[in-house]
Write a structure and sequence with these properties.
Structural class of chain A: alpha+beta
Strand order of the largest sheet of chain A: 2-3-4-11-5-6-7
Oligomer: homodimer
CATH class of the largest domain in chain A: Alpha Beta
Number of domains of chain A: 3
Largest interface: A-B, 87 and 87 residues
Distance between the termini of chain A: 8 Å
CATH topology of the largest domain in chain A: Ribosomal Protein S8, Chain: A, domain 1
Number of strands of chain A: 12
Strand content of chain A: 15-25%
Chain lengths: 354, 354
C-alpha cells in the first residue's frame, strides 16, 4: 500500500477523464469528487472508481461532455436531464442549481433524469452547507440494483437507497450519508473475495432464509439484502421507500421497469434565513454539537461524535500524509490511462512511500 | 374492554375540549385527531390522551383558543407561533398552510414555535397527501424529553424524534410514521407496570450499560434509550439529529436549553405537479405499491405490505365494530368530563358491548 498525494491523484484523474472526451473543467470535477471521497476514507466511492468510470465511457453508459438540460423548472424546482454525462458533473451542477434557487426562494428541490453514477452522495449536500444552507438528498438506482427486499419479503425490490444531509456550523459541517440497507452489495462482494462471512442479519438466500455466506448470496439463484434496522427493519424499509419516491417516482421513473439511468438523484436546499436566520442557525448548530458531544461515552465506546466528524479527521490526515492506494487499484488506474491514450509521465508530483 | 363507536367518542371529546375553553370547531379538531389515532390502532396517541390534554389545560401548559400567529413568512415558508393552543389545532393549521404554499410555490416548509403535544405525526402528512402532494414532517421535543443517547453515549441528548411522510396513490396513501429510537419511553413505562422486561438492546442504565429492566431504567438514577438501528445505531442517531435540526434548530430553539414548548414541528409539502405531474405521480405510486407487494414473503413472514396499510385496515375494522377502550381509560375520561363541568348524558350514541 503506497501513499499518493491527493493533488497528484487529482491531476491523474483530470488527465484520464479529459482523455475520455470530457472538457477539462468537467474532468477535474469528476476527479475531484472521487479524490475527496478517498480523502475522507470512503474508499469504496473514491479513486478505486477511476477505472470503472472509464469502463462506463467505453461501454457507452457514460457520455463525457453531454450537455445538462433543465427540462422543467419553477422558482423552487428543476428537473435536470443529465444526458448521461459523468454523474459527479451532473450532481455538482444540480447542487449549484439548488443553491441558486434556495437562496432566492428559500426552498429548492432539484431532481435528475438520465444520470450516471454520482459517487459520494454526502458531497453534494456538503456543497449546500458550505453556502450556509441546509442540504438534504436522496439517491435511488434503477431496477438492476434492486438487491434489497421489502420488509418481510424475499425478492429484491429496492436498491441500497442512501440519503444524506448536511448542516453548516461555525466549523466543519455536520454531514450524514447513510444507506437504508443493512449492508451494500459491494461490501458482500469484498467479503466473498476475502473468504469471510457476512455479519448476522444482513443477507438472505433466494428462499428468504437468513445466511452469512456471501457465496450463497450470489448464487445462482441470487439472494437479497435486508433493509436497515434489524428487528425494526420496517423502518429501514420505509426510509428506502422515501428515497425511491423522492428520487425515482417524483422524476417520473416507474420502479418496476428497467431504465438506462444508474442513479436517480434528488437534492433539496433549505435556507435558514427564512426561519431563525443564517447566523443564528450556525450558532445553534454549534450549541447542538457541543451539547451532543458533552455526553460521556458508554462503557466500551471511545467517544461521542457528530456525523461526518470522523471523515473530516481522516481527510486532514490524508491531506498531510497522502491517500493509501493498493497496488492492484493503482495498476488498474495505469491500465485505464493507457487505454484512453493519456500520458501522466509529465506530472510533477510523485507517489511517496509511507 | 368495551367497544365505543368512533362518532360517540368524537362527540364526547368535542364536549370535553369545548368545556376546557376551546371554540367548538377547534375542540372538534382535537377530538377528531385523537379518535383517528385510536381508529388506526395507534392507541398510545389516541383517546387515552383525552385526560392528559385536560390536565395540560389545568396546569397551564395548553391554552385553548389561543390565536395562531404567522410570525415570519415567504411564498414557500412560514414560522407559526402556536401560542400553546392544543397541538392538533396548531399542527392541522400548519399542514393547511403548507398545502396552500405548496400548491402555489411547489415547495413549502412550515415550522412551529410554542407548540403543545401534537398527537400522531403521520396525520398531518396524510392531510397533505389527501390533497395530492407529498408530505414530509419531523417532530422533536424540548430538553425534558431527552431520553435518547447519541450513538455511543450514556446521557440523553435527544427525544424519540419521529419523522413521517405520506404520498398519494389512486387508493389509500402510503404513510410512514416512525420514531428514530429503539423504543418509546411510554412503552417502557407500560412494560414496567405489566412487570415485563424490555426487549434486548433498547435501554441502558445510568452508567450506559445495557439493561432489560424497566425499573433500572427509571432509577434513580435514570437510564436512557438507544437510537434506532441496533448495531447500526449511528444511522438512527443521525436521523434523530436530522429531526432535531429540521424541527428545533431551524426554529431557533437551542437544543441544550429547556423550553416551554412540548413538540417542535416541521411540515413540508412538495407538489408533484412541478416534477412528473400529479396524475403520473399517483399512477407511479400505484405501480410502486404493486411492485413492492408482489415480492413473495420470506419464511415466517405473513405478507409484504406498504407503510400504513395495516393501520388503514384496522381503521376499517374499528369504524365498523367500534374502538376498544379499557375500563380505566374510560373512567379517566369520565373523570375529566366531570372535572371540566361538561355533561355527556345527552349524547345519542351509547357504547356497545362487543
Amino acid at each position: 500500500m503506497k501513499l499518493y498525494p491527493a493533488q497528484y491523484l487529482l491531476e491523474v484523474g483530470t488527465k484520464l477523464f479529459t482523455a475520455c472526451g470530457a472538457p477539462e473543467e468537467e474532468a477535474a470535477i469528476v476527479a475531484s469528487e472521487l479524490v475527496e471521497a478517498s480523502l475522507m476514507g470512503l474508499d469504496s466511492h473514491g479513486i478505486v472508481r477511476y477505472s470503472q468510470y472509464v469502463d462506463d465511457v467505453f461501454n457507452g453508459q457514460t457520455k463525457p461532455g453531454a450537455p445538462l438540460r433543465v427540462i422543467k423548472e419553477s422558482p423552487t424546482t428543476a428537473v435536470v436531464d443529465c444526458g448521461f454525462n459523468f454523474g459527479p458533473v451532473s450532481a455538482a451542477r444540480m447542487a449549484d442549481i439548488a443553491c441558486e434557487k434556495g437562496s432566492r426562494s428559500n426552498m429548492a428541490y432539484v431532481i435528475s433524469r438520465n444520470c450516471a453514477h454520482i459517487g459520494r452522495l454526502g458531497s453534494y449536500v456538503q456543497r449546500i452547507a458550505e453556502r450556509g444552507m441546509f442540504g438534504f438528498a436522496t439517491c435511488n438506482s434503477s431496477k438492476h440494483g434492486h438487491w434489497v427486499v421489502p420488509w418481510g419479503g424475499r425478492e429484491g425490490r429496492l436498491a441500497t437507497n442512501p440519503l444524506a444531509y448536511a448542516a453548516p456550523t461555525r466549523g466543519i459541517p455536520v454531514v450524514l450519508d447513510m444507506s437504508t440497507s443493512m449492508i451494500s452489495e459491494g461490501k458482500v462482494r469484498v467479503l466473498m473475495h476475502q473468504g469471510k462471512p457476512a455479519p448476522e442479519g444482513c443477507i438472505q438466500d433466494a428462499s428468504g432464509d437468513p445466511t452469512i455466506d456471501p457465496a450463497v448470496f450470489y448464487g445462482p439463484p441470487r439472494g437479497t439484502i435486508r433493509p436497515f434496522g434489524s428487528e425494526l427493519g420496517y423502518k429501514g424499509f420505509g426510509l428506502a421507500l422515501l428515497v425511491e419516491i423522492m428520487s425515482g417516482i417524483m422524476a417520473g421513473e416507474a420502479a418496476s421497469e428497467e431504465h438506462p439511468y444508474v442513479n436517480g438523484l434528488a437534492i433539496m436546499a433549505i435556507n435558514p434565513e427564512a426561519f431563525c436566520g443564517a447566523a443564528q442557525f450556525r450558532d445553534l448548530m454549534d450549541d447542538l454539537c457541543a451539547y451532543i458531544t458533552s455526553s460521556p461515552s458508554a462503557p466500551g465506546c471511545k467517544e461521542v461524535a457528530m456525523p461526518g466528524a470522523y471523515d473530516f479527521r481522516i481527510r486532514r490526515e490524508r491531506l498531510a500524509d497522502g491517500i493509501p492506494v493498493d497496488p492492484s487499484t493503482w495498476q488498474s488506474i495505469l491500465d485505464s490511462v493507457h487505454r484512453v491514450g493519456a500520458s501522466i509521465t509529465d506530472l510533477p508530483l510523485r507517489p511517496q512511500d509511507p
